[in-house]
Amino acid sequence: GDSVTQMEGPVTLSEEAFLTINCTYTATGYPSLFWYVQYPGEGLQLLLKATKADDKGSNKGFEATYRKETTSFHLEKGSVQVSDSAVYFCALSEVAGANNLFFGTGTRLTVIP
Amino acid sequence: KAGVTQTPRYLIKTRGQQVTLSCSPISGHRSVSWYQQTPGQGLQFLFEYFSETQRNKGNFPGRFSGRQFSNSRSEMNVSTLELGDSALYLCASSLEASSTDTQYFGPGTRLTVL
Predict the structure, then answer these.
(1) pLDDT tens for each residue of A69-96
(2) In chain A, which residues touch B (CB < 8 A)?
(3) Spatial separation of the C-alpha atoms in residues A112 and B74, rounded to whole Å
(4) Element (H, E) at A35
(5) Measured in whole angstroms, how far is the alpha carbon of residue A80 from the centre of its chain?
(6) Are B41 and B73 in contact (CB under 8 A)?
């Protein structure tokens, strides 16, 4: 079945450090891939997405490239800020005609000044 | 445009009771999905509705049910509550029911079962 494996957290970085959160997936077809972010006490917000191989999603300085050959969708940001502290979820949606998301376990990021 | 709204935001119930949660999608969105978030199991898909029809269901017992109204608003119901049902229940809406669509999430309803 479909699944998403995310890098274990928590991750603690200093402000302006480089961020990578690894995400790999297992799917029988051609999934769409998403990164969602959850700030404390809030619901999930879409950060970026990619719907086909080699697509790059980007938003707010975050980027992720859909790599079919390595079944990966790693999240990167060149310089993190304290305001980026949150939990990040990688997710996929595959079933044609439906859009239920399969989520990874989430990675908690804390950025210290 | 207003975002996805969920009511109530917090609920406390006791074992054996039932509960109904409500979700209003973004205006114009026809698909509504529900997810359960717990520290142990993470985010799990419950069910999805599109044009008042359940299109997809996750691996949850029959105590969990839902429906969608003609205005796309949705409710989910949990009967005979168990302690393990304590969770954050998230509703998400999207324009259509396509795997490429973005789902927009509400703030969630936090259910505590005592």
Answers:
(1) 999 999 999 999 999 999 999 999 876 6
(2) 31-32, 34, 36, 42-46, 49, 51, 89, 91, 93-106
(3) 40
(4) strand A32-38
(5) 15
(6) no
